[in-house]
Amino acid sequence: MPTRRRGEIREEAILLAAMSLLGEVGYDRLTIEAVAERAHASKATIYRRWPGKAELVGTAVRRHAGTPVAAPPETTNLRDDLVAVLLELRAGLTGQDSALILGLLVAMRRDPDLAHAVRRHVLDHKRDVFAAVLARAAARGEVPETVDHALLAEIGSAALLSRLLVTGEPLDDHFLHTLVDAVLLPMLSRQLDRP
């Protein structure tokens, strides 16, 4: 196995320090100085890689806040593909610190740079996964190519976050299947029925 370059090791230490501090003090109180001290790095090293705190946190969140969601292996129908995506999203969410997620969401409302970075690093990626699933469904003739994957991703992600952060109700398989059958597929059907 090839050894990692010194720069990669330094970057990883910085990102882990940022995630650790984010969980401890929250985004508002996190400083580049504290990250540098925790990572045993200089502020100049951090600023050479990231222009500011928002980009640093965005990269750290993308790399270390749960596993990235990938488009699941193709099934034979859209329903099974959607369930598979939601299973991936659930696995990523339940592996994360709820307080960290909530803190990021609150900070994103106050800091446009952070909001932009997190959207670019995390949310856009989730939209891309839904887009891939819908593109496969379009290739099979199940939906037209014009269906709104962004809305589908937003509704699916919001329902999971609501269960995790607000209601505390189970994020079990039954809920995921119900979300697909009662919300996502009917929403797609309504898009198909529009003139």
From TrEMBL:
Look up keyword Glycosyltransferase and say if it applies: no
DNA-binding region of this protein: 31-50
Q: What is this protein called?
A: TetR/AcrR family transcriptional regulator
> What InterPro entries does UniProt report for this protein, alphabetically?
DNA-bd_HTH_TetR-type_CS, Homeodomain-like_sf, HTH-type_TetR-like_transc_reg, HTH_TetR, Tet_transcr_reg_TetR-rel_C_sf, TetR_C
Which terms are listed as keywords in the entry?
Answer: DNA-binding, Transcription, Transcription regulation
Q: Which organism is it from?
A: Streptosporangium jomthongense
Positions of the HTH tetR-type domain: 8-68
Entries under PROSITE patterns matching the protein: HTH_TETR_1, HTH_TETR_2
Would the keyword Transmembrane be found if you checked this record's keyword annotation? Answer: no
